[in-house]
Write a structure and sequence with these properties.
alpha/beta, single chain, 5 strands, 7 helices, globular
Length: 148
C-alpha cells in the first residue's frame, strides 16, 4: 500500500500550450493549484486565470483552484526584484511567510494528492512552487514531488 501524496509542479514560461497541457495530461494531474500572486497578467498568455480554467477543463478535464495562501506577498516579490534576484534572501523570507501562514493546516493532503502547483518560472530551482512542495513534504513526510 502506498500512502504517499503525489504532487506535481509546473511553470508555464518557455512552454507552448501543447507541451504544457500534454505534460499535465500525461502525468495524470487531477487539479491544477495556481499559486501565483498575479494570475491575470497579460504576460501570462494562455495561463491567464479565465483562459487557463477553460482550457484545463476542456482539454484535460482538470479542475482549477487559485490558492493565494501559497503565493508570495507583493512585498517579497518586489524586494526580490529590487535586489536583482537574491534567491537566498527570497527563500528565507518566503519560507518564513508560509511557516507563519501554517499552510500545512490550510491545505489538506487530499487536495494536494494528484494536484499540480502552477507558477510562471520555467524551472523549479528558483521558484516558490518548489519551496512550497518541499515545505509540505517536511511537514507531512510523505509527499512525492515531480517537477514537470
Amino acid at each position: 500500500m502506498n500512502d504517499s501524496i503525489q504532487l506535481f509542479t509546473i511553470g508555464f514560461t518557455k512552454k507552448g500550450a501543447k507541451t504544457f497541457f500534454e505534460s499535465l495530461q500525461n502525468a495524470g494531474v487531477k487539479r491544477l493549484l495556481d499559486i501565483r500572486l498575479n494570475n491575470v497578467s497579460q504576460l501570462a498568455g494562455f495561463a491567464k486565470k479565465a483562459d487557463l480554467e477553460y482550457f484545463l477543463k476542456t482539454i484535460c478535464d482538470i479542475d482549477y483552484i487559485h490558492l493565494l495562501d501559497l503565493a508570495p506577498t507583493k512585498e517579497i516579490v518586489d524586494e526580490y526584484k529590487k535586489n536583482k534576484g537574491d534567491w537566498q534572501q527570497y527563500e528565507v523570507q518566503f519560507l518564513e511567510l508560509i511557516r507563519q501562514r501554517k499552510i500545512e493546516d490550510k491545505v489538506s493532503p487530499d487536495l494536494i494528492d494528484g494536484a499540480c502547483f502552477l507558477c510562471s518560472e520555467a524551472s523549479p530551482n528558483h521558484c516558490h512552487r518548489r519551496l512550497v512542495a518541499e515545505y509540505l513534504n517536511q511537514q507531512w513526510g510523505n509527499v512525492d514531488i515531480q517537477h514537470l
